[in-house]
Structures are given as C-alpha cells and as structure tokens.
Design goal:
The chain is α/β, with parallel strands linked by helices. It contains 10 helices and 8 strands. The two termini are 35 Å apart.
Length: 313
C-alpha cells in the first residue's frame, strides 16, 4: 500500500501590510497613462503565461506586457513583490484569472479593480473538484483552470481584445483584427480536439492535479486528479488507496504528470496500480525559458499524448 505524508501544503500568506504600504510609496500613483517605462505603449500586466500569451498576440507592438510569474515557475506558488504590486497599480490593464493566484487577486482588488479583466467572467465555470478531503487552504468554489479548454480560451481571447480596445481606443481596430485572427487559430485547435477525441476506447484521464476539468468537460472525458487546485498538495494515504482502485477499475494505461510539478506521487501511483505508465500532460501554466513552444503547440502536443493513451481511432 502507498504511504505518504498526509500533511498539506498551506496557502502562502499574502504580503504583510508594510509591503503593501511600500508599494504605494514607490511613486506609482498614476492610474494608467501607459507611459511609465513602456515607451508610450499600453502597459499590460499579465498574471501568468496564458494571459501574457493572449496579451502579446492580440496587443502586438502597441502594448508592453509584463508577466508577474517568471518563466518555468509554478504559478500557484506566486508571491508578489512590492514592485509587482506597484506594476499592477500603474498598468493600463491587468489580465488575470481569479482563483489561481491569491496574491494577484488581492492586488487587483485593492489597486486595479476597474482596469482589469478576470478571464473567469468570460466563460461558464465548473464547480471546484471535490476530493472529499481538505487541501489545507481556502480556494474558490469554482474550478479556475478555464484556459486549458480551447473552446473557452476563444471566449477569453475575445474578452482580452475588448478590454484592450477600451484601454487604448486609438488602436481598437488593430486589436479587434488580431483578436479575430487568433480566435480562428484557437477554434481550429478546438476542432482538432473534437475530431481527435471523438472515438476513444477509454475516456478517463488520471492527472497530477485538477487542471483538466474544462478540457474533460468539453470533450466528454472524465478527470481523476491526484491533487485538487493546489498541485503541490500531498494526497492522504486514504486518497491514494482510492486512486489506485480507480486506476485499476477504469483500465487506465497512463497516469499523467506535469512539466512544473514533481512527478513522484504520480510515479508511485502508476507503480502501485501495476502495468500503468506515466506521460507528461501539460496544463499550459507556464513555458520553460528558451522554449519555442506556445499555447497552441503545447495543447496540440497534449492531444498527441492523449490519443494513444485513450486508444482513440
């Protein structure tokens, strides 16, 4: 039987009030001229990779995008520095997904409430995945991983385009043109998933954490996550025993690990279930430094991984 510590990784606490006060004292009281160090371009702050990718593709040369999460870093772990809090305050537009990064949610609520776009507001959400056990921190009552589904990502892209057009009306037509072009690319990816996963022998995916709920919902799959919203939360021995039974009963051939999360629990689960291998399924939470991949290519690779694992014809 698998045995792991049942301790939970606590949510990182918000910055103390002294740090918040310091951010306000950095001489950044401007409410969005787009000029502070951005060379006259519209200043956009993105919480992490998916939102930065949309901002760059839709904004083009007329925006300067600053990403709060460093390349290759796990976004759920983000803590903001005073300088980053100040950047949120001075930006013309902040793009984020409420429920993924509490520190960003707090900064936006206090400093950029009326010049921000929460991607969750553009789509129909799903309930948070209930694992039947406490993960050690509070989180939203919905699943925040909305970007992993290309169908919903197309709607989010339209929202980004609309908010950029409002923040910078002089270039509104350009933003709308680029939005339309990007939505077509995302929609083509959506079609590829629909066609590629239409006929599969298996429809259960066992994942490192509950990041693929929207993808599963859209394409008729069932997600069985090892951890919930927090990918670093360690499941209890009872949960691991239940997972082993689920893997065996479902006939799953693969336990999916992730690029930015330790695979040790997934590896152990695969060994315990017997005759099960592991493969990387990327939730597109970040891109490693120097990588030439982007949102579209990463998800196409995910589709290539899913099809043989689910024995799709």
């Amino acid at each position: 039987m698998l045995t792991f510590s049942s301790s939970r990784r606590a949510r990182r606490r918000a910055l103390p009030l002294t740090a918040i006060a310091l951010a306000g004292a950095l001489g950044l009281s401007a409410c969005g001229s787009g000029d502070g160090g951005s060379g006259g371009r519209t200043k956009v702050v993105a919480s992490f990779y998916p939102m930065a990718w949309l901002a760059e593709r839709i904004g083009g040369d007329t925006v300067k995008v600053e990403t709060l999460t460093k390349p290759g870093a796990e976004p759920h772990d983000l803590e903001l520095t005073p300088r980053q809090i100040a950047d949120v305050q001075s930006a013309d537009l902040t793009l984020y997904i409420k429920g993924v990064q509490p520190a960003v949610d707090d900064a936006v609520d206090k400093r950029a409430k009326h010049k921000s776009f929460d991607a969750v507001t553009a789509v129909k959400t799903l309930p948070a995945h209930d694992l039947g056990e406490e993960e050690g921190h509070d989180h939203a009552d919905y699943d925040p991983h909305v970007w992993v589904d290309p169908g919903r990502m197309a709607a989010i892209a339209k929202g980004v385009g609309d908010h950029l057009a409002t923040a910078d009306p002089d270039h509104a037509a350009d933003y709308r043109t680029r939005t339309d072009a990007l939505v077509k690319q995302i929609s083509a990816l959506d079609t590829a998933f629909q066609d590629g996963l239409k006929t599969c022998k298996r429809r259960t995916i066992v994942t490192s954490h509950a990041a693929f709920g929207y993808l599963a919902d859209h394409y008729g799959l069932t997600q069985v996550p090892i951890a919930g919203v927090d990918p670093n939360a360690e499941p209890s021995p009872k949960r691991l025993a239940q997972l082993t039974d689920q893997v065996r009963s479902s006939g799953a051939t693969t336990v999916f690990t992730e690029t930015l999360v330790s695979p040790k629990v997934a590896d152990a689960l695969a060994r315990e279930a017997g005759g099960v291998k592991t493969a990387v399924l990327d939730p597109v939470e970040g891109v490693k430094p120097g990588s030439s991949d982007d949102y579209l290519s990463i998800l196409r690779h995910d589709l290539d991984i899913l099809r043989p694992a689910l024995e799709c014809s």
